[in-house]
Amino acid sequence: MVWFKDDGMVYKPLEELDFSPTSNETYIKSHVKAPRMTGIIIKIFTWLLEIRGFGSSVLYILKRDNLIHKLVSFAKLKEPPAFVPSYPWNDLNEQEVKSIRPDLSPLQQVEETMDCFPSWEKAILNSECSFRRWTIQDYSRSYASGETTPLTVAKRLLAVIQESSMPPLRMSFFINYNAEDILKQATESTLRYQNGKPLSILDGVPIAVKDEIDCLPYPTTGGTKWMHKIRPCIEDACCVKHLRSCGAIIIGKSNMHELGVGTSGINPHYGAARNPYDINKISGGSSSGSATLVSAGLCPVALGVDGGGSVRMPAALCGVVGFKPGFGRVSHSGVLPLNYTVGMVGVLAATVEDAFIIILRLFSYAAISSNSLSDHPVSLQPKVDFPLLKFTNSISNIKMAKYGEWFNDCKDEIKNCCYDALDLLSKTYGWKTVETTIPEIEAMRLAHYITIGCECNASLNSHSEKIKRSELGWDARVALTVYASFSSGEYLNAQRVRNRHMQIYAKIFKSADVIVTPTTGVTAYPITKTAIKYGEFDYHNGAALVRYQILGNFLGLPAVTVPVGYDKFGMPIGLQFIGRPHSEATLIHIAFAMQSLCISSYRKPQVFYDLLGKDAVRGPTIMEGHQNMLMMPST
Fold it and tell me: N or C: which end of the chain has fewer CB within 10 A?
């Protein structure tokens, strides 16, 4: 069917854009015109989309009504395409950092880490928190002191996994785990501690890996029933290799949204990874299992992949820290190439310190080492900066850019909570919020959607003859049909939008150190029974969940989310900081400062296990319709 060409946006030259807070640049809210579908409705809609001719007509209307045609497909802009969001090295002269030689091994970098922390005893005394999750340092100290062993923790963990997978919880933390392999790793770690020769602070620490990252002895499914059949896992991903070299215990492949194409974390093949704060609500996607595992106390850190907020979104919804490094800072070797230029391996962690231990030692090393191959183009950097967190109080003159209309485009409870957090930062550290205008945000969101769609489609296209539609969930079928509808012209225009926005944000960062936003526009919402069976297509909630996160992915910028409060139902709220290229150290500083101000009010989830406590294996008990956990870390 031949359609007339819609009118596209004519973008003004960059030099004519007004970034002042009084700018007349128009903020376009997410223009979502698509119903929430699940059950028989999503099945019918999928069948219609897959009918040749008719499906193309429906897709044309959807793309037109959701402003894809106007803002991207037929838009007129002069910028050439930028296919990769890479930046030349620029020494930012960050405050209170320790420069580390990039040729150090992962073990050496881990050793250097400990000089950057406040003393363990001082941190505990100053926390004054009624609840906190066990951290990497807690595990290491418990092993070194003989209070417990990695083998004991592994046995408790396996009992917890078994219990939590059965009614009434059905947490669906994992796609795959291997008890024999876990016990073998734990036994080896225990022997090292008994001999007084632990490899590092990570020795014996349980870490989960999203099932988008290669990790032996497991197949890499990408949340599907077929991926491992056409792409076998033959070795560990680069990031997993470095974790193993430090003695970490890999406890399995965590659940994820199928192919990472959705935001709910509901997988029709492996179950819905349920939110530990309310098991009847979503955890967010696509790194859903990793977020729930950390939130529920089964491990202090887990790996995820963030292509469109897929680390930060579930971290925020589940009340933990989520860190996405900048593009090219992490080796992508051994990661499913579903979102090549927008995706990045990230960390979900109990604390900012735990995220730091993983991200700035192992990942930076993996990205810049001359003997580490990366599927991402990586610029060799002359140094790696570690933040000196024990001197956080002395980091000064931080300016946080905030675009009011964008910041306020969320639920009132989220907005108010995030404003309170900013006030705390201002009163405690004297940091300033700089009001600004950020133009064309909706155009960037849609350009990212086209980009990630085209990259996913290109990745799977070579296997199309081997993929059976009947093996795909219904929401994944809808997503892949939409992705396949994007043309080469639309992809090129999306990359022109990327180039334009890389320049826009370079101007914003001239007057600010970070951009601050809520992490999500909504908190976790209820899971429906039909969604568990069929999946769901929910573009409304999806757009609200990713509203503030696309910037970091599309432009390759580092970003972190920190828990700052809860809504009236007790569901977590996160605040996000987005930094300049290569500014991970400053982001860690800022996130640590924010955490220090909020940690005293952190709440224990309904589902929580204390693997270092004597009663950890007993897990949750049902009381008055809620899960009341028996143990929590002591302060």
Answer: N
